[in-house]
Amino acid sequence: MKRQMMNQKAIERHLALLNDKLAEEGIKASILLVGGAYMVSVVQNRKTTRDIDVSIATNQAHIYRAVKHAATAIAQTYRLPSDWFNDDVTIVIDQIGRPQSPSLWKQFSHLRVLIPEEQYILALKLFAGREDDDRDIQALAKRLRISSHAQAWELVQRYIPPHMQSMRPQEIANAIERCFSK
User: Fold this and answer.
1) Beta strand 111-115 with 103-107: parallel, antiparallel or unpaired?
2) pLDDT tens for residues 74-94?
3) CA-to-CA distance for 62 and 54, rounded, in angstroms?
4) At what angle do helices 169-179 and 134-144 cross, to 10 degrees?
5) Which domain, by its residues, includes 166?
């Protein structure tokens, strides 16, 4: 299946479909929007993303399964790639910790879409250390007025626990080197 990039309208439309599917099941859920969908919809530094990266904000297995099932059903019904709704980042978020002060971005009848503070997203992108994220890192840094290596490292220290930093020291250092002045 050919991957279609999603703009902000498509992201919102797909999340509305997810809400409708959850409503059919009588399930209320919350998700944390991160990654490219966050950049497209909140920061608006780019027009499209390939998937909607989220963390499903629940400790209840039946809610988690219902959200995943709804996303799969939408993929099948609307011929979307199976990973259009991607919660792989949950593993990282669970290990580094949830955002300190998420806020409500969209409220549907059965789906709340929360967003973390921009500093948290920047820390996640620095932790990932991917060159593909450099444009996003630079956009976030500009909005947050973070311009130096020292400021970037301070942000990483604040959001990424030391044991997690030790798993990706070179990736973090390389991202900071590429995106910030000394």
Assistant:
1) antiparallel
2) 999 999 999 999 999 999 999
3) 17
4) 70
5) 119-179
Question: Looking at the domain assignment, is residue 2 inside a domain?
Answer: no
Non-local CB neighbours of 96 within 8 Å, separated by 6+ positions: 123, 124, 127, 159, 160, 161, 164
pLDDT digits (tens, 9 = 90+) for 122-136: 999 999 999 999 999
Q: What is the mean pLDDT of residues 40-59?
A: 95
- Per-residue burial over 4-21, b = 16 or more CB atoms within 10 Å of its CB, e = otherwise: eebeeebbbebbebbbeb
Helices within 27-60 (DSSP H only)? 35-38
Structure tokens of 171?
Answer: 């990736």
pLDDT at residue 181 in the model:
82
77, 158: one domain: no
Instruction: For residues 160 and 145, give the distance between their C-alpha atoms in angstroms, rounded to a whole number.
Output: 19
Region 5-17: mean pLDDT is 96
Structurally, the chain folds into a number of domains equal to: 2
